Amino acid sequence: MQPWQARRVAEATLGLSFEAAAWVDRQLAPVAHKVGPAQLDRTITEALTRFDPDRAEAEARAARESRYVTVETRHVTTDGCVQVHGILDLADALDLDDALHAVATTLARLGSADSLDVRRAKALGEIARNDLTLNLTLPVTDEVGAEPMASAEKVPVPRRQVMLYAHLTVNSHGLDPFVRVDNTRSLITLDQLREWLTIQNTTMTVRPVLDLNEHLETTGYQPTHRLREQVAMVNGRCVFPHCTRPARGCDTDHITAHATGHAAGGPTCSCNLAPLCRRHHRIKTHTAWTYDLLDTGRYVWRSPHGLTFHVDPDGTTSIETTRHPSRP
User: Fold this and answer.
1) At CA 184, angle to CA 181 and CA 185, rounded to 5?
2) Cβ neighbours of residue 207 under 8 Å, at least 6 residues apart?
3) What is the pTM of this model?
4) What's the whole-number average pLDDT of the chain?
5) 203 near 159, Cβ under 8 Å?
6) What long-range pairs does 221-225 form, CB within 8 A, spacing at least 24?
7) What was the pLDDT predicted at 323?
């Protein structure tokens, strides 16, 4: 670990108790040289909740009270644009992101030549104009404070569509107070998950436990949904060196190319599949980059220039290799 990395961890833990700081040290010591600011913040937050729950609850309550959305209508550019910024609840943010993506995709299919960012900005206006974000049932009255009319009209209440992949852990003390949200690579408290599940019109789906150590295999080229889900959960992100693209948005790559015709090849199974984002999937397929699975979630990559990298759930490490005497 470099001195600046040690200082960063030390400064971040100054406000923790001795027990909490010692716990952070045990978590980060083996991987501190690969931990980024986001992972450090998550570890500090988890330590606070485990060892100082009262302070963690106070900070969580303050964070909930800090939510806001501001539309800067007083600061308009000469092109008629304004800034919109805010802080949202995670579930609301995922809902909004899905809605923006859906409308932006529709605009592209309708012939829009704008960039994705511009289409997402336009999508927000479309959502506002169509009242898609309202979650209210309002009776129509003659005047303020009056009883609802007999023929009251109601604003339709859309069902919440947000998708969270939440993983709960049972330890020797019972249910762990933390829940890992797979699709955002973050931790939330069990109480926060309970709160989201009690929101009106929220649908909860409970899936069977998936054994990440089970060996799954299919005879075809395409992995089954269960196999694809296992590969995504084991790795969490694209396994190309230094890439952080979430695994659920990646292709499922055959480490050893799948058999075609009479040619020998690799099977479609747990030990021969890994998530690669589309860009790195193409690099691996069409260039001299190669990689092998060491064991679950750990890979060794070799570049066309003789560089070697070790990739695991904690990040990427460059491996020093001995060059061939004939090479410069």
Assistant:
1) 70
2) none
3) 0.53
4) 79
5) yes
6) 221/258, 221/268, 222/268, 223/252, 223/268, 223/273
7) 47
